[in-house]
Write a structure and sequence with these properties.
The protein is of the alpha/beta class. The strands form three sheets. A four-stranded parallel β-sheet has the order 1-12-10-11, sandwiched between helices. It is built from eleven helices and twelve strands. Keywords: 4Fe-4S, Iron, Iron-sulfur, Isoprene biosynthesis, Metal-binding, Oxidoreductase.
Length: about 290
Amino acid sequence: MEVRLADCAGFCFGVKRAVDTVYEQLKNGKTIYTYGPIVHNEEVVKELSEKGVRVLENKEDLKQLKAGENIPTVIIRAHGVAKEIYDIMEANGLECIDATCPFVKKIHRIVELKSNEGYHVIVVGDPKHPEVEGIVGWCPGPVTVLETPEQAENFVKTEGEKLCIVSQTTYNYNKFQYIVEIFEKKGYNDSVVNTICNATEERQRSAKTIAADADVMIVIGGKHSSNSRKLYEICQRECEHTYFIQTLDDLHLDLPKAVRLVGITAGASTPNKLIEEVQNYVRINF
């Protein structure tokens, strides 16, 4: 039996940068807070918690944190935050260290600029995802979040209104293109910016290729991770026996009798050591 790991699996550039930022700050002996979990992986957050890193869950938590004799350090999560969060930190005299993924930061600049130019911003993505909430928070003007082609079909713009369409970085590339085509047919294609991260596209393509050939497919990722869930959806369409796990403890394989190839992929917030644990376990036990 062959065990094959996808070419693009595990920490992406933005996640690695954010996690490394937290560990660098811990060396200074400071009390470290992150605004929201630094990344969407429970194992990473748990490990940082054991080292004393505290998570601020919302802006009410943040407002309670004020500079006194010691200035608290707050690290912005990889998913980014709304402009309002920066304003609160400045008003409270907090040290802000920005670990927002540069690709997300680019979207903030685009939507702020276009919104100030009078465009109605359309964000294609999950309205409950922190990255999307952050993007919305950089739009001073009208903004709409669309998650499905049906919502795009039902959207009607105001006469004379200009639209700027962007995407959550981890949104499914093919779905985004389909939604853009819907808007183009309506004549709503004033400004379209494909802001899906290259790493996301490569990860999805690589996972699909292996899943199409695999008898069993394992997707490793956090339960709240958008890109991990999308990898699972893509793999499930290609491979009937697809499993979504967070850690090795979740892996309960019910393998078909003849297994030729087990494929493994992992979300952008999954640590390499966890991927290696799963790989080694499958090789040894099956």
